[in-house]
Amino acid sequence: RTWSSGVIFLTLNVNSRVAMWLSRCLRSQAARRRSSAAALSKCSTPRGDANWGDANRGDANVSPFRRLAGPAARASKALLFRKHGDPSKVVQLEDVDLPPIGAKDVLVKMLAAPINPSDINMIQGTYAILPDLPAVGGNEGVAQIVEVGGQVTSLRTGDWVIPKDAGLGTWRTVAVLAEDDVIALPSDIPLLSAATLGVNPCTAFRMLCDFEDLKAGDSVIQNAANSGVGQAVIQIAAARGISTINVIRDRAEFTQLSDRLKAMGGTHVIKEEALRRPDMKELFKNCPKPKLALNGVGGKSATELLRHLQYGGSMVTYGGMAKQPVTVPVSALIFKDVKVRGFWVTQWKRDHSRDGKAFRAMLDELCRLIQQGKLTPPACTEVGLQDYSRALDRATQPFTSAKQVLIL
């Protein structure tokens, strides 16, 4: 299968005769969720085959993959870090033993897991939540159910699932996870869409829904428009008839990137320098002033976004790539009554974890957009697991337009 370059996935092929292992990933705030461990199997199953778990039903709770693996498949390959620091120096590919499968647990084969900025920050020790060490890297990805415990009711073998929360440790070949730690997705969406669904599209969706009452014909302005969140914002907004003003840094390939963002539905694509120029007045002759500004950069870029908000509009900060504070002009507060907010999708998921209805409804709507061809994953590059060092290095480079993804 061929995908556009841009997001790099690490691909892990499981040898049909070699059992692989995976470790329990201890997570911070363990009281909120069970620690997870990885699982492994001897055979690789074709990706995207939604029916492989339905065949050979000697035991409805066990897939053919698990039978072929046998009881020896109690270990996995995993990317672990035993201390915080530079990912290229502290992350190692290791073998980790699997725990037993409990009555409310599931054995999963990881299919694909991206490398996100939050993953890098977690390894560096600078993220808001940090796992106990040693830990398996990765907060996002898609897996397929191989076996279910006797008391599992919401999942079955063959289902595709993604983590409900951060800290699950997705950079591994297989895992034993609690039923409540994952949520099912339709298996007829593209693999890369499933693997990158739980963080960036969810962040974009919530910011477009939760801060301003946006309607068709309204506009949104955002920096970091070529990021995973930015691309999701463009597509979700376009599906709702909302215009987007997309700000990106100048670069050699600006024209190509601008054309790509417009092709996915972006209304306007401008350089950061243009925010401070009179040209913006011309732009707003054909586009209403934005009700909502989305800030993933910080610093001067965020300040300039604020200047272009309409009266009473909101700026929502979800990232700080510039590593500079957000400065709010006094005039924007007094004369325009702008609102300055923040958003963290991990906290949103935890706040809505009790009944799960809001999360389920959001995933269903995002999956419908994917099935309709209105929401595609960011540009991805697939990388084999053995090449994880190269993927980690690329994920930390500036002006990166491709997401690194581990294909497991």
Mean pLDDT value: 84
CATH superfamily of the largest domain: Medium-chain alcohol dehydrogenases, catalytic domain
What count of structural domains?
2
- Topology as H/E string? EHEHEEHEEEEEHHEHEHEHEHEHEHHEHE
The helix count comes to: 13
Characterize this entry briefly.
This protein has 408 residues and is α/β, with parallel strands linked by helices. The chain is built from 13 helices and 17 strands. It folds into 2 domains: 7-196, Medium-chain alcohol dehydrogenases, catalytic domain (Quinone Oxidoreductase, Chain A, domain 1, Alpha-Beta Complex), CATH 3.90.180; 200-346, 3-Layer(aba) Sandwich (Rossmann fold).
How does this model look, in words?
By secondary structure, the protein is of the alpha/beta class. Strand 11, helix 7 (254-263) and strand 12 form a beta-alpha-beta unit. Strands 1, 4, 6, 7, 8, 9, 16 and 17 form an eight-stranded mixed sheet that branches. The chain has a six-stranded parallel sheet with strand order 12-11-10-13-14-15, sandwiched between helices. The chain has a three-stranded antiparallel sheet with strand order 3-2-5. Helix content is 27%, strand content 21%. It folds into two domains: 7-196, Medium-chain alcohol dehydrogenases, catalytic domain (Quinone Oxidoreductase, Chain A, domain 1, Alpha-Beta Complex), CATH 3.90.180; 200-346, Rossmann fold. The chain is globular, with a radius of gyration of 22 Å.
